[in-house]
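Entry 14. Ran structure prediction on the chain below.
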Amino acid sequence: MQRESKINLTILLTSFFAAIVLFFLIDLFTLKYRGEGHGISGNGNFGLLFVYPAIPVYLFMLVFVYKISRSYYRNRNNITILPVIILLLLFLCVYGEYNLVQSLFRHLKRGEFPPDVFTFPWPFYQYTNTLYFNYFTFTIGVLLTLLISFCVEIFRRRKLNRTQQL
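Output, C-alpha cells:
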C-alpha cells in the first residue's frame, strides 16, 4: 500500500505542476484588453492552444486529488473542521472569480452583458480565456474535489457504523 501511495503522490504532483504551467500559459497568451480607442486585436486566440491540453491534465490531477484525499480522510479520526475550512475557502474563491468576471466585463463593454466580444456562441475569445482558466477556478476545482471526497468518506463511515451495529 505504501508503494501505491508514493506512486499516486508522484502522479498528483506531476499533473499538478503540469496543470499550473498550462494555466499560466493560458493566462500568458490570452490578450489583455487595452481599453477603448485601442481597437480589438485581430491576432487570434493563442491562449486556446493551451486550453485543450489543460482540460485533461487538470481533470487527471483532480482524480488523483480525490484518491489521495480519500485515503487521507480514511486514516484520520477527527476531520470535522475540514469541511468548514474548505467551504470558507470555496466561498472566497467564488467571490474572487465573480469579481474577476465583473472586472473583465466592465472593461469589454462598460459592465453590460454580453460584452461586444461575445458575437458568436463560443465561450473562448482572445480576451476571455482567463475567465475559465485562472487561479480561482483552479482552486475551486481542487476544493470541490476535497469536499466531495470528504462527503464520500463520511457516507462510508456511516454505512460502516450501521453494518457494525446490526
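Residues 108 and 142 are 29 Å apart (CA to CA). Will compare against last week's run tomorrow.
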